[in-house]
Design goal:
- With about 425 residues, the protein is an alpha/beta fold.
- It contains 13 helices and 17 strands.
- A hairpin with a 3-residue loop joins β1 and β2.
- α8 crosses α13 and α11 runs parallel beside α12.
- The chain starts with a strand and ends in a 5-residue tail after the last helix.
């Protein structure tokens, strides 16, 4: 029997799932990051990756056929020619390169004017491409030879091949997922030599390095595959399979993915479409979500207070819950201010208002996707830690007006393992 491993690197921790060729979940493991300084992130990620590999049952490790890793979208770093990082990572929500959005917009508009090929690009203050443009103006850029997404760099630690990525992670780097190429206007820029070679998610990149195979008693022919993003992995794990079905990932942020027959692109609202076979995952990512809740409540308080929310009543509070200024979707505004006032003395009422406001943002996002041409919403699966909150689910059900259910497999790691297994067995996950 062969086994396939998927590893999910999220914002607060990492998870491992091992499945067999019939997609049965065989084992799981997880690690939380805790508070990690920016300068220690890479060490934390590497230690976590190796720790999770060591958690796999020895018998499964010895028959592990392939591994793939997902990471947070637009979390990137620069490496030198030897693969050593020359920067600390810029995380998914880092907007220090916001001033480059106008530069990118002008480059893109000029390309359209000259009839250059290419689809819409993600004009976001936190996109991978904006971060690369910002880095190109920093002194450290002269040392850099490769841009690596989080999933790319972690995969490199296993297979040792630099400059490789997948077209899910690379969408926000300007990669044209419709034509499977970088557009000409992008390859003409001075940053082009740092762009990774892009392959399909789940495609084998190379075998594990001998030292890794020996350390973890892995087969010498165990393949390391191209990864994906955390939200797409969550979609794959959900069980959603028909156009009109969607997945909302309720983690530190709120991410919407709607399976559609047609793509939708709209930079004004932070909407983009990922390729998924011959269909499209249309959606966007809001900066609201669990990270805001963690600012005000402990995990135990969230459980206790949520149980006391009168879910049949509509909260009178209309918040826009953010941890800091800046939003990506359904409003694409890097300067949007959080709205967390007025704050009632009753913590139950405050939490009710926060959860209901997040539910409104989610519903507004799905309405917008449909208004712009996506397949009409039929059902929403829920992934992430927020899926366990019954009160939040009830509030969302009222706002969305369609059935809401938990994903068949709640962990994105399972979706990444499924992606890997599908590449080897031909078994369709959708």
């Amino acid at each position: 029997m062969s086994f396939y491993a998927g590893i999910d690197f999220g914002t607060s921790g990492a998870r491992l799932a091992v499945i067999d060729a019939e997609a049965h979940l065989c084992s799981q493991a997880s690690r939380t990051f805790g508070t990690v300084a920016e300068s220690e992130l890479l060490d934390c990620w590497q230690d976590t990756l190796f720790s999770l590999l060591g958690d796999i049952d020895r018998a499964e490790r010895q028959r592990l056929r392939a591994i793939a890793i997902n990471g947070t979208s637009s979390t990137v770093l620069l490496c030198n020619a030897a693969g050593q990082p020359v920067t600390t990572p810029l995380l998914y929500n880092d907007a220090r390169g916001a001033s480059e959005v106008d530069t990118l917009r002008q480059l893109f508009l000029q390309a359209l004017y000259t009839n250059a090929r290419g689809q819409q690009i993600v004009l976001s203050a936190t996109s991978s491409l904006v971060k690369l443009l910002w880095w190109s103006r920093q002194s450290v850029f002269s040392q850099a030879r490769y841009l690596q997404h989080q999933a790319d760099w972690l995969g490199f630690l296993l297979h040792g091949q630099l400059g490789m990525s997948d077209y899910h992670n690379s969408l926000k780097l300007g990669y044209d997922v419709a034509n499977l190429r970088y557009p000409d206007w992008l390859t003409d820029l001075a940053i082009a030599p740092l762009l990774p070679r892009v392959v399909a998610p789940g495609m084998p990149i190379g075998t594990v390095q001998p030292a890794i195979a020996k350390r973890f008693t892995l087969p010498s022919d165990c393949q390391v595959c191209a990864g994906t993003t955390d939200s797409i992995a969550a979609f794959l794990a959900s069980g959603a399979a028909q156009p009109g079905e969607a997945v909302t990932s309720l983690g530190s942020t709120l991410v919407l993915k709607l399976l559609s027959q047609t793509p939708v692109e709209n930079n004004a609202h932070g909407i983009y479409s990922h390729r998924l076979g011959d269909r499209w995952l249309v959606g966007g990512a809001s900066n609201t979500g669990g990270a805001v809740l963690q600012q005000f409540f402990t995990p135990a308080e969230l459980v206790d207070l949520s149980d006391r929310i009168p879910v049949a009543q509509t909260s009178p509070f209309d918040y826009y819950p953010l941890t800091q200024p800046g939003e990506r979707f359904p409003v694409n505004d890097p300067h949007l201010l959080p709205c967390l006032e007025p704050r009632p003395a009753d913590p139950v009422a405050f939490l009710h208002g926060l959860l209901e406001s997040m539910a409104r943002i989610e519903a507004e996002g799905y309405r917008l996707l449909q208004a712009l041409g996506a397949t009409p919403l039929q059902q929403v699966y829920t992934a992430g830690g927020g899926a366990r909150n019954a009160a939040w689910t009830a509030l969302r059900l009222r706002q969305l007006g369609v059935p809401v259910k938990r994903s068949q497999q709640p962990d994105a790691a399972y979706g990444t393992a499924l992606l890997t297994m599908t590449a080897f067995t031909g078994r369709q996950s959708l």
